[in-house]
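Hi V.,

Quick status before I head out on leave. The structure for the redesign project is tokenized and pasted below; the design run finished overnight.
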């Protein structure tokens, strides 16, 4: 067990029987950790702390339109993402106006209706604009707000994307373009 906070240590002491790790325990842990890395095919080719600045300089990249040309706009990437939590509030009112329900439903920034406002305008009408928004959220907006990437690297979006768009490949492509 690797405890990260005083509260965690207190909970562990109250509710579990533990012992200090032996040399053999640490050796087995290190072996397990070193054996797992070959199972992860995607790797950033740069330090993740560079991502917000990289994204800022990539706003007008042609890559967004290229991704938009490939993207099907199905929203599968955000549906399976553990860090996507966008929602919509829908009011359903009876015709007589006496009763109604308000439902909060998951929504998806990759769907065309997501950025459509009451006037009918759509602030992210193209698939390329929606792809750019998705990646900026993961690599720039959330890190700047909270100090953590908006992508946990689980690969669910990569496995579910019928167009084979993966965050790591997108970020690496932007990084290579910056270096060129």
């Amino acid at each position: 067990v690797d405890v990260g906070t005083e509260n965690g240590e207190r909970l562990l002491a109250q509710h579990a029987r533990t012992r200090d790790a032996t040399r053999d325990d640490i050796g087995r842990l290190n072996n397990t950790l070193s054996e797992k890395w070959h199972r992860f095919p995607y790797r950033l080719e740069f330090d993740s702390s560079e991502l917000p600045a990289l994204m800022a300089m990539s706003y007008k990249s042609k890559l967004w339109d290229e991704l938009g040309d490939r993207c099907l706009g199905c929203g599968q990437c955000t549906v399976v993402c553990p860090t996507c939590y966008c929602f919509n509030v829908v009011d359903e009112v009876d015709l007589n106006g006496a009763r109604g329900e308000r439902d909060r439903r998951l929504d998806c920034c990759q769907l065309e209706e997501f950025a459509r406002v009451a006037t009918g305008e759509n602030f992210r009408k193209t698939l390329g604009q929606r792809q750019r928004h998705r990646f900026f959220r993961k690599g720039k907006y959330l890190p700047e707000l909270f100090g953590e990437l908006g992508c946990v690297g689980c690969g669910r979006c990569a496995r579910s994307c019928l167009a084979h768009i993966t965050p790591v490949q997108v970020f690496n492509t932007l990084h290579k373009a910056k270096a060129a």
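Above is the designed sequence. The two ends are 44 Å apart (CA to CA).

G. will cover questions while I'm gone.

Best,
W.
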